[in-house]
# Entry
Amino acid sequence: MTKLIDGKQVANDLKVQIASSVKKLIALGITPGIAVILVGEDPASQIYVRNKQRAAEQLGIDSELINLPTTTSEAKLLAKIDQLNANPAIDAILVQAPLPAHINEERVQSAIAPEKDVDGFHPQNVGALYNNAKSYYPQANTPRGIMTLLAEYMPDLVGKKALVIGRSILVGRPMMAMLNNADATVTLAHRHTQDLDQLIATADLIVVAVGEPHFLKMSAAKADAVVIDVGINRLEDGSLVGDVLDDMPDSAQLLTPVPGGVGPMTIAMLMQTTIELARQHSTFE
Ligand code: NAD
# Structure
């Protein structure tokens, strides 16, 4: 078996630290608060939102779910965001994607106050990430969770060949920027990339965020490659698989399992970002 990166364990350790930070903040009179807006009734989104809320509750973070009907107008959603921007009890605002087709996602992301933008999608925060700004700004939680896993399992990224496959706003693009900020040499591949096999065969680190079962075989990667599988795909039989097929018995490679790899880290990082924003809003620290 390829060696597995234990995302669950790293996420649980992080949650223990977060719970202790929340206690300290509460003792100072600061209760971190997150508002999650869900528009519509997409079953997968409902599960994601429930998991986020459960994690917040477990850690002592206040969470408010705002469930709006699919028919909600963009103006109404923007008005709700304005209200939350002005509410001092709310430190973090998350709008669950995907939004119904009649709502412009870019306008929604830009409407969230940058200092409450827990997903790090506001253009100001994206710009800070791309510029490797020194001051605090929230960063996208899935790639940030991956950076936390790498700190544990691949601490020296300097000069390493990192290949990111998939260039979504949620994963691939911020991943590219974070690895670049960590001084890796980054290649961003996507559906038009030529000679992908060649890039895969020479990369020290591969982050796969494509959304296709068994898109990458471990046997196509270097013998000591570290592979991060972001994909979450549900097969017809109901089972969950990632984008990677582990066909390398006894290899020295490292791989994140699905489930139990990147998923738990995303939620833990979301909570971490929430308490960081709460600290930023407080005058005590
Ligand atoms: P997306 O659909 O927005 O982007 C997919 C990307 O893959 C695109 O940039 C596309 O160019 C690229 N791609 C598609 N086919 C390709 C090919 N043949 N060769 C090279 N590149 C190709 O997806 P996303 O939102 O980034 O999500 C990707 C996967 O990660 C999904 O399965 C999603 O469910 C999962 N995901 C998991 C987490 C988590 O916390 N574990 C978080 C976000 C997304």
User: Anything to note?
Assistant: Residues 29-119 form a domain with the Rossmann fold fold (CATH 3.40.50.10860). The pocket of nicotinamide-adenine-dinucleotide is lined by residues 142, 165-168, 170-172, 189-191, 193, 209-211, 230-233, 262-263, 266 (CB under 6 Å). The first strand starts at residue 3 and ends at 4. The longest helix spans residues 7-27.
